[in-house]
Amino acid sequence: MTRQPGPFDLSLGQGAILPLAGHRLFSSADVDEARARVARVYCDHRLDVVRGGTFSAVQNRIEGRSLSVNIMTYGSKTMIAPGALERFFLFQFPIRGHASVSNGDNIHEIGGGRSGVLNPDAETCMIWSEDCVQVMIQVERTALEALARTRFGLPAGAALRFAGSNALSHGSGRAFAGLLEHVVREADFGCNLFDGPDLMAEQVETTLMVGLLQSQSHNLSDVPAPAAGPRAVRLAEAFMTANLGNPITLEVMAAEAGVSPRALQSAFRESRGRSPMTVLREMRLEQAWQDLSHPGPNTSVTDVATALGFFHLGRFGQQYRAKFGCSPIETLRRARQA
């Protein structure tokens, strides 16, 4: 069987153009200059050439609001000792070469398809191989831990802790690496997804953070979803009813109900047999039927659908017919003929 190429199966021989080449932060053959340039966006650190190769540091970088994606190489075997990162987590994935990592008691090797994450509150020291090229995500500690609380049940006041290295060759790891590669390739083609409309760029960042949490080993692996009872379901449904015409996300509903999104989903499946977003769609369809059954002189199917968040009219028509056995326009016509 022919092996399917995995994410970041890139040809990175010596002299190859690095990903994000059009987003160069700096390049330098001077160790002190490289240390200073890296410190500006990461933190102060010790940087020593161990041996071999010609030192030639390069950092390419695209920045979002809470995270950045970086491509880095030093061109020679180097030791990097930043101490504690303090304000950010750092995901590392060598796409060429390898690195030995000591991050407190989180000691591991990365490379050969394996990645890892540096915890911000532990002393860190790394040795990168001479040919090492890494893709890295620098993500603000507050942002990632907030997401871990709302999506993964990190207890209030607890710290998020990563451990060990993780293969990105299958399952959620492969999906995450594929998404990360897509973001990098789009930037290489001139479309930086972090520069898009605010909501879209925010969603790209959130998806990357969720992918990081789903693909890496951490202390949340065995944390069960906190229970949410009928009260949370009632609060969420009341919020839906009051905001049918407004954009509503699972996260917003969960916040209104005072539980995590995962807990709210579990509560809805247990008490309603459906997800919260399915219940929301059903409510909106029922409101559409009401609006079309009691039309005003200027009522139109398009206006009713879009006012309730159905912007794909064909899909709206299919969902409406599946629920009511007729099309939206048929409902409107019958109401006007009555």
TrEMBL record:
Residues 234-334 form the HTH araC/xylS-type domain. It holds the Pfam family AraC_binding_2. Keywords: DNA-binding, Transcription, Transcription regulation. It comes from the Bacteria. SMART domains: HTH_ARAC. InterPro entries: AraC-bd_2 (IPR035418), AraC_XylS_family_regulators (IPR050204), Homeodomain-like_sf (IPR009057), HTH_AraC (IPR018060). PANTHER family: ARAC SUBFAMILY, HTH-TYPE TRANSCRIPTIONAL ACTIVATOR RHAS-RELATED. This is AraC family transcriptional regulator.
